[in-house]
Design goal:
The complex is a heterotrimer of chains A (461), B (406) and C (142). By secondary structure, chain A is of the alpha+beta class. Chain A folds into two domains: 106 residues, no CATH class; 312 residues, no CATH class. Chain A has eleven helices and twelve strands. In chain A, α2 packs parallel to α6. The longest helix of chain A has 63 residues. Chain B is built from eight helices and 13 strands. Chain B has 406 residues and is of the alpha+beta class. In chain B, α3 runs antiparallel to α6. In chain B, β12 and β13 form a beta hairpin. Among the domains of chain B are: 93 residues; 120 residues. Chain C is 67% helix and 3% strand. Chain C has three helices and two strands; from the N terminus they run αααββ. Chain C has a two-stranded antiparallel ribbon. In chain C, a hairpin with an 8-residue loop joins β1 and β2. Chain C is elongated and about 50 Å long. The N terminus and C terminus of chain C are likely disordered. The chains are: A alpha+beta (461), B alpha+beta (406), C mainly alpha (142).
């Protein structure tokens, strides 16, 4: 017969075990909505049974440790979708701020170009009218202003994205440091406990990796020394307990470049996450040889040049050959930002083709600008229409991508929760039932107590 | 699959349905189904071009609205002139009739009246500009001829000379009542009074100006342009500041003689994408060059007034008026054609406006009936989603814990 | 067991012993079930315990029906081995019952706390705005 002491120790052991179990339940419920909390199950081993007399009883249970349930595949899918979502959102945010400037309004470039040509046509019906001449110059100014505004919108966005690049690189470096710091701790925990998949620390690291995925495209591999994180082209950012930082440098035109830990310029290779989206929008959608800024500058420069050429073919009211209509820079770059009127005196508008004040013969050269193709291949309104299309199309794509990745993440998170998450309902239901069971069990305990008293009097002890 | 919490799904569904509701509301409120470029990039791009077309159509319509009344005014002036010329022909025929010899002075007066009316109509203006002056619309194109014109500038103390520089780009015009032609001179940089004098001499040689027309510096140091005939005369205008204005020397006006000081410029305006129309008929093509209406009338008056009128002379002058009248009628035709062209164009443009409006509506506009239906549907759906959410979210077993255990 | 018309006290004693051992087993099983959070197993086991208790109580009642307090216990004179085992099993049962009671007491307290915790919760959720965060947080007052 076990001694009272051993009976008590069994009791204590069981209590500990039960306590562990209930603590797990407790933990699970409180953490139900903590991001990344994965459900822990108590891993129990039965203690070796002991023989009491000729009656063998279970010797209670011993608490061994906690084990997390996790689905590695879903985790990495979530990382990827997060990357895509952040990239799309970076682009979407910028484009949504660019769009309004190019929408039809009373002051967009398309409307102002039309107004300028209308004012020229109107002058043709009354070439000597000073008011009509002034109207042409005012319309020219409005067009220049529209170009300036549009250019400013694009460069402001570009500048914001540029700052974002620096910010993101800073955040990335912070995260890789934190991830690396966790690696040895997780490895140690796994080594001392009997279980793989160390619990809360691994959750923490997963969260950091998720945040990192939101910023840029990285590859994550499991090794014996913890998580290894590399850039898209294989350069290490985290190996075991060590992290390696990205850095930035000023590039041409002030566009911040991103360098890997070896100093190589990896700016164009960053494709995912907020950093990737920001770089892509900055360097290819807005900037670059096919970007919006270049197209806008080209349009401004070609229209300006055409108007100046038309002026030169005619005579103004002072009898002189026409001066420049617009002032534009010599290079295409900066044309939209800097285009402005070169003349403010209505008399300087060169409408005349034969030197007489009342002639409107040169106006046909101005009107022709609207219908002729510019050197870049389309009419002015055709060119602007293409720019509008491009903006709408890129924004729509980013929007669709953002929606799709959001939907996808919702599904993946649901799946992840069903594998490793905690059902509040289930846990609560368990609580009620436990309560009820315990009450029944407590009645049994009293009954057994009484029964044993009765039994005692039935036999000679 | 165990649902850990309905929350991510419910929230996603709620977001989607609220977004659909907001879109439907916006479409009904704005009447547009494309409110941002990204809603429909193709439609947005097409809109840019369509709106450019609309703006052009609007401008053409406006141009026509400005031009038609002006050209109708010109046409009615010409119509009056035609009437007067017919009268003049009748008068001339009367005058050529030998039996009316005594009445010739009276007839001559009447013809003079006709000439005055014709000149007055030829100097018709519209909205502050002279209709038949070519592009020199700020001064009357038909001016009473005088023998001599002198410049405002130049004095005994500081006379002009042949080496006086002229203002580059300035224009000097000499109308000749006799030839019916007009001499135009535009100064280039470096030109002097001497250059002008040479040009005038060349014009005389070419027959543009009457023989004997000269330009010289008079005793007062002014530039003096004169003709030696007293049955015709000249009219001179200039905008050269070096000369100052040119004015007729007093007492040198020639009776019943007028010269044209406008120019031959024809201005055009656009009334359709590929269609420009002439907006004026210059006075010289109508009344002087080729068919010298004014010259013919002057000649008739002269013939009627002469002491020894010859029937032939009167007859010839009357025939000249007939010829001139034919010419005017011919010159009038393009003007009439343009007016009717503009009228038809106007109705075409009105159609175009409707077509473009419809096109733009179909690109970005919301069909209101559809938009309203969509809105109702979106509202219903949104309410349904909210109702489900209201049921699902709080109805977790947590609520049931308030029940006391048995 | 309804029929206690027993011809032999030995038979009754043997039956009583069997049910006591079964009860002991079930209590062990219950404790395992609690430790493993295996609610159905626990419920099942408790049901069996209740049945066994009823049965034992019936038998004890039947025995005491005609029993007059005397110097000699009812089961005296039965097979000595059986008597000894009844005694031992009784002690085991008491021990187990003691542990079981302690376990239930501790767990019961925890359950009550937890259900109080959840009872207060009324479903207030805060979600971070924007397309990036879909995490929810909730709080509860005790």
């Amino acid at each position: 017969m076990a001694s009272l002491g051993s009976v008590l120790s069994i009791a204590v052991q069981s209590l500990q075990a039960a306590d562990g179990g209930l603590q797990v339940t407790n933990n699970n419920i409180a953490n139900a909505n903590t991001p990344g909390y994965t459900r822990q199950q108590v891993v129990l081993h039965e203690s070796a049974p002991s023989t009491t007399g000729d009656f063998t009883a279970g010797d209670g249970v011993t608490l061994v440790g906690y084990q997390s349930v996790r689905d590695e595949l879903i985790q990495s899918q979530i990382q990827q979708e997060t990357q895509a979502q952040s990239g799309a959102n970076a682009q979407l945010t910028s484009m949504q701020q660019i769009q309004p400037t190019f929408e039809t309004s009373s002051t967009d470039i398309g409307t102002e170009m039309s107004a300028l040509f209308s004012s020229i046509s109107s002058l043709g019906t009354d070439p000597t009218s000073n008011a009509s001449r002034q109207a042409v110059l005012s319309a020219g100014q409005n067009l220049a202003t529209a170009f300036n505004t549009a250019s400013n919108t694009l460069t402001t966005q570009q500048s914001g994205l540029n700052s974002q690049v620096t910010d993101d690189v800073g955040k990335i470096n912070q995260l890789t440091q934190q991830i690396a710091a966790l690696n040895p701790q997780i490895v140690q925990q796994n080594a001392t406990s009997d279980v793989q998949n160390g619990g809360a620390l691994q959750d923490q690291q997963n969260q950091l990796i998720l945040q990192l995925s939101a910023l840029t495209n990285v590859n994550v591999t499991q090794t014996n020394n913890g998580i290894t994180v590399t850039t898209g082209n294989g350069t290490a950012l985290v190996v075991a307990g060590q992290s390696f930082s990205l850095s930035t440098s000023a590039g041409a035109n002030g566009m911040t470049q991103v360098l890997d830990p070896n100093g190589a310029n990896i700016t164009s290779q960053i494709t995912g996450g907020d950093l990737g989206g920001s770089i892509q929008t900055r360097d290819q959608t807005i900037g670059g040889s096919t970007g919006l800024l270049n197209q806008l500058d080209t349009l401004a420069n070609e229209v300006g040049t055409a108007f100046n050429a038309a002026q030169a073919k005619g005579t103004d009211l002072n009898g002189n050959a026409g001066q420049n209509f617009f002032t534009i820079p010599a290079t295409t770059s900066g044309s939209a930002a800097n285009i402005k009127m070169a003349i403010t005196d209505p008399n300087l508008l060169a409408a005349s083709s034969d030197g007489t004040a009342g002639s409107d013969g040169n106006l046909a050269n101005f009107s022709a600008i609207q219908t002729n193709t510019l050197p870049s291949g389309q009419t002015p309104s055709g060119t602007f229409s293409s720019i509008v299309y491009q903006i709408g199309s890129v924004t729509a794509s980013a929007n669709a991508e953002s929606s799709a990745t959001t939907a996808s993440l919702t599904q993946l998170t649901d799946q992840q929760n069903s594998v490793s998450g905690v059902s509040t309902d289930e846990e609560s239901a368990n609580l009620i039932t436990y309560q009820q069971a315990y009450e029944a069990a407590a009645r049994v305990v009293s009954t057994v107590q009484a029964l044993m008293t009765v039994t005692m009097s039935m036999v000679t002890s | 699959m165990r649902i850990t919490s309905m929350l991510p799904d419910m929230q996603y569904a709620m977001q989607q349905s609220q977004q659909a509701l907001a879109t439907a509301e916006m479409q009904v409120a704005t009447g547009r189904k494309v409110n941002q470029l990204s809603d429909d990039p193709t439609a947005s791009a097409s809109m840019v071009v369509s709106l450019t077309d609309s703006a052009n159509v609007d401008q053409y319509t406006s141009n026509i609205g400005t031009l038609v009344p002006k050209m109708q005014t010109a046409d009615s002036a010409i119509s009056q002139i035609v009437t007067e010329l017919n009268t003049a022909i009748t008068l001339g025929t009367q005058g050529a009739n030998g039996t009316n010899a005594a009445q010739r002075p009276a007839i001559a007066s009447e013809v003079a009246g006709v000439l005055a009316t014709v000149v007055s109509q030829a100097n018709a203006s519209y909205s502050g500009g002279y209709l038949f002056a070519g592009s020199a619309t700020s001064t009357p194109p038909f001016v009473a001829a005088s023998e001599t014109y002198t410049s405002a500038n130049g004095s005994a103390g500081s006379p002009l000379s042949s080496s006086t520089a002229l203002t580059a780009g300035s224009i000097t015009t000499i109308g000749d009542a006799s030839t019916g032609d007009t001499f135009h001179f535009q100064a280039s940089a470096g030109d002097t009074v001497g250059t002008l004098q040479t040009a005038i001499a060349n014009a005389v040689a070419a027959g543009t100006l009457s023989a004997g027309t000269t330009a010289s510096i008079n005793a007062s140091g002014q530039l003096s342009i004169s003709t030696n005939s007293n049955t015709a005369g000249i009219a001179v205008t200039t905008n050269d500041a070096a000369l100052g204005s040119m004015s007729a020397t007093p007492n040198t006006q020639v009776a019943n003689a007028y010269a044209y000081v406008g120019n031959s410029t024809i201005n055009t305006a656009q009334i359709a994408d590929q269609l420009s129309v002439a907006t004026n008929v210059p006075g010289d093509s109508l009344f002087t060059t080729g068919s010298n209406v004014i010259g013919a009338l002057s000649a008739l008056i002269t013939a009627l007034q002469s002491n020894n009128p010859s029937i032939t002379q009167i007859g010839n002058a009357t025939n000249a008026i007939s010829t001139a009248l034919n010419s005017v009628n011919q010159q009038r035709v393009p003007l009439d054609n343009t007016i009717s062209e503009m009228n038809s164009e106007e109705s075409f443009l009105n159609q175009e406006t409707v077509t473009l409006s419809t096109q733009q509506s179909s690109l970005v506009g919301a069909d209101l009936a559809t938009a309203a239906t969509n809105l109702t549907q979106a509202q219903t759906q949104n309410q349904a989603v909210l109702a489900v959410a209201a049921k699902v979210l709080p109805q977790t077993l947590l609520n049931y814990l308030s029940q006391p255990s048995a | 067991m309804n029929d206690h018309a027993l011809a032999s006290r030995d038979q009754l004693a043997a039956a009583y012993l069997q049910e006591m051992q079964a009860l002991a087993r079930e209590i062990s099983i219950s404790m395992d079930a609690i430790a493993a959070n295996a609610l159905p197993k626990l419920q099942d086991s408790i049901a069996k315990q209740e049945m066994l208790c009823s049965s034992l109580a019936c038998m004890a009642h039947a025995v005491s029906e005609g029993f007059k307090p005397s110097a000699q216990p009812y089961f005296s004179g039965i097979d000595a081995a059986v008597e000894k085992r009844i005694g031992a099993t009784r002690k085991t049962l008491l021990d187990l019952n003691l542990k079981y009671a302690a376990l239930l007491k501790h767990s019961g307290r925890t359950i009550s706390l937890l259900s109080m915790l959840c009872k207060c919760h009324t479903g207030q959720f805060q979600e971070a705005r924007g397309p990036r965060s879909k995490y929810q947080t909730w709080s509860c007052e005790m």
